[in-house]
C-alpha cells in the first residue's frame, strides 16, 4: 500500500470515478444538476401532498441533494481557483 502511494498510484478503494467524471466533464455536471432539479421538484409534490412522514422524508432528501450539489460546486470552484493560480 505505501509503496503504491509512493509511486503515485491510488488504491482502488480511494478512487471515485463518478466524482472524477463530474469534475472533468462539465456536461456531465450539468446533466446531474438537471436530474437533481427534477427529483427535487417531484419531492416538492410529496411535501405538498404526502403524509407527515412522507413530507419529512421528502424534505430531508431535498436537503441532502442541496448539500451534495453544494459540495460539488465548491469543489469545482476550488479546482478552478487552484488551476488559475498554477497558470
Helix/strand/pairing class, anyone? mainly alpha
Gyration radius, in Å = 18 Å
Sheet of most strands: none
Percent helix, as a range, is: over 70%
Low-confidence sequence ranges:
none
SSE order? HHHH
Query: How far is the first residue's CA from the last residue's CA?
Result: 33 Å
What is the tally of beta strands? 0
The overall pLDDT, averaged over residues, is 89
Strand content: under 5%
Structure annotation, total helices: 4
The dominant shape is elongated
Describe this structure in words.
The protein is an all-alpha fold and 87 residues long. 2% of the residues are buried. The protein is built from 4 helices and no strands.
Can you summarize this structure?
The chain has helices at 2-6, 17-24, 26-49, 52-86. With 87 residues, the chain is mainly alpha-helical.
Any descriptors?
mainly alpha; 83% helix; 87 residues
Helix and strand topology:
Layout: H1 2-6, H2 17-24, H3 26-49, H4 52-86
Helix pairs in contact: 2-3, 3-4
Amino acid at each position: 500500500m505505501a509503496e503504491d502511494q509512493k509511486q503515485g498510484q491510488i488504491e482502488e478503494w480511494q478512487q471515485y470515478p463518478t466524482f472524477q467524471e463530474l469534475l472533468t466533464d462539465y456536461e456531465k455536471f450539468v446533466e446531474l444538476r438537471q436530474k437533481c432539479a427534477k427529483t427535487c421538484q417531484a419531492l416538492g409534490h410529496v411535501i405538498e401532498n404526502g403524509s407527515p412522514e412522507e413530507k419529512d422524508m421528502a424534505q430531508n432528501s431535498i436537503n441532502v441533494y442541496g448539500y451534495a450539489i453544494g459540495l460539488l460546486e465548491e469543489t469545482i470552484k476550488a479546482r478552478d481557483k487552484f488551476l488559475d493560480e498554477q497558470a
